[in-house]
Amino acid sequence: MKDGLIKALACDKRVRIYLCATTALVDEARKRHDLWPTASAALGRTLSVGVMMGSMLKSDKEQLTIQINGNGPIGTIMVDAYSDGHVRGFVGEPHVHYQYNDTGKLAVGIAVGKDGYLEVIKDFGMKDNWSGKVALQSGEIGEDFAYYFTVSEQTPSAVSLGVLVNPDHQVQAAGGLLIQMMPDATEEDIVKTEALLKTLPPMSTLINEKESLREIVSSLYDDVEILEEMPVEFRCHCSKATIKRMITTLPKEERLAMIHEDHGCEVTCHFCNSTYQLSEAELRELEDFLERYEK
Ligand SMILES: [Zn+2]
């Protein structure tokens, strides 16, 4: 199935649905960061929530950042999401791999840990930022986001996330489903949704076996109304220019040391693992510019 995102309504518009397929997107993250399977699952689940939350933003001036840290071996998971369906992200330690002995499933909760928090920071461009932070429930990410939406955004929500990784570490299927109860949702809508979730196959199975997102979303309720479809992708907007800007924020001694002692520098973008080399001449040029600017 092709990657993408669908927004829809059901139960006479009292229930909102976000559904995404992120297989190629998560595999791109895996390749860029050399993620081991459990790290692919942890970052992949967070990237999938990221594309769905990004699509809730009102304009391209807005963005949001998700940060998860449960004091587990994977360290911090960080994802930036944008309104047009693109996301970027990384984990502190990409080389983690744990499986549950009984089911053989990737043990995301063990890699992430649950002694910590999930934080979402929304940047509304010109206006103030908004942030919400909740304690992690299980570190499995889906449950943690369901708790976050219900407590921090006061929107009762169900979240299903899945990443299926092949033995050769390639991502076979990934995606996410978010179902939110609008304020006018009825008891019957809630009962209907709970029943649906009880019988819903894992997200990665649906993405792997079904033909399209439309097919999946239409099967959830009897009156599904599709609002919008959009593409999704892993994309970072770092460039030599953004790296230079970052260097100008370093202390002057450090900048001069890069010129006189190291004769150049190499900077890696955390989000996409791209590497940028700046020559001594480029660093001198930057320093000249700063000197003129400072006067
Ligand atoms: Zn980058």
From TrEMBL:
Q: Which domain of life is it from?
A: Bacteria
Task: Extract the coiled-coil ranges from the record.
Answer: none
Q: Which UniProt keywords apply?
A: Chaperone, Cytoplasm, Disulfide bond, Redox-active center, Zinc
Q: Where does the UniProt annotation locate this protein?
A: Cytoplasm
Identify the Pfam families for this entry: HSP33
Instruction: Detail the disulphide connectivity of this chain as listed in its UniProt entry.
Output: 236-238, 269-272
Q: Which InterPro entries match?
A: Heat_shock_Hsp33 (IPR000397), Heat_shock_Hsp33_C (IPR016154), Heat_shock_Hsp33_N (IPR016153)
Q: Which family does it belong to?
A: Belongs to the HSP33 family.
Q: What does this protein do?
A: Redox regulated molecular chaperone. Protects both thermally unfolding and oxidatively damaged proteins from irreversible aggregation. Plays an important role in the bacterial defense system toward oxidative stress.
**Record-given protein name:** 33 kDa chaperonin
Q: Which organism is it from?
A: Massilicoli timonensis
Upper classification of the source organism reads: Bacteria, Bacillati, Bacillota, Erysipelotrichia, Erysipelotrichales
